[in-house]
Write a structure and sequence with these properties.
The protein is mainly α and about 190 residues long. The chain contains 8 helices and 3 strands, in the order H-H-H-H-H-E-H-E-H-E-H. A 3-stranded parallel beta sheet has the order 1-2-3, sandwiched between helices. Strand 1, helix 6 and strand 2 form a beta-alpha-beta unit. Helix 3 (about 35-45) packs across helix 4 (about 55-60). It is globular.
Length: about 190
């Protein structure tokens, strides 16, 4: 990154940006969120490794996968053809999908956060606030955060504040390449 930044080339991959932009436009025309748009785009275009894609897998299974964009934080945002309005619209659709899912969690649900230190804990807290605003009352909610190091926002905005006194929460600290396969095996068995 250091070598490319001063040359003005950091994040300037044409292929990444083109696919991102096409996937956003694809999702916008389908009326879905970013996650759904990415999954359908990967499937529709026969991407080489679609069988290993979280988005494509979620799309095939009919499970929402949401993407919450903080504009200006990704390398696709710096390209001249970046569809900012469409990206924001699709990200907002995903926020509404997440908010619906969070409301469902209020009744003895499970929340698993895998390695997001800043954006997703903030988005989750706002989705929780919407649920409370709609008079949801949490009970028996189980929350767990997996990360390589404990993070303030995960601890406060996911594990502590949202369901205080209405469930159980845990922070599991470790390397993702070890912890996620172990979680998978536990859930599978």
């Amino acid at each position: 990154m250091a070598a490319e930044l001063s040359l003005g080339r950091f994040g300037m991959s044409r292929e990444t940006s083109e696919h991102f932009n096409q996937a956003v436009r694809h999702g916008d025309s389908a009326g879905v969120g970013l996650g759904g748009g990415f999954g359908d785009y990967i499937e529709t275009n026969g991407a080489a490794h679609a069988s290993r894609s979280v988005f494509a897998g979620a799309h095939r299974a009919g499970i929402p996968a949401t993407v919450h964009v903080a504009l200006g934080t990704d390398i696709t945002h710096q390209h001249a053809g970046f569809p900012a309005e469409e990206t924001a619209r699709l990200s907002m659709r995903d926020f509404r999908i997440l908010t619906d899912r969070v409301q469902r969690v209020f009744d003895a649900g499970v929340v698993v956060l895998l390695g997001s230190a800043v954006v997703l804990p903030e988005v989750f807290l706002k989705a929780t606030s919407v649920a409370y605003n709609l008079e949801a009352k949490p009970r028996d909610v189980f929350t767990v955060g997996f990360d390589m190091m404990p993070q303030y926002r995960v601890r406060e905005n996911v594990l502590s504040r949202p369901f205080r006194g209405a469930g159980e929460s845990h922070m599991i600290t470790g390397h993702h390449e070890i912890m996620l396969p172990l979680l998978y095996l536990l859930l599978r068995d």
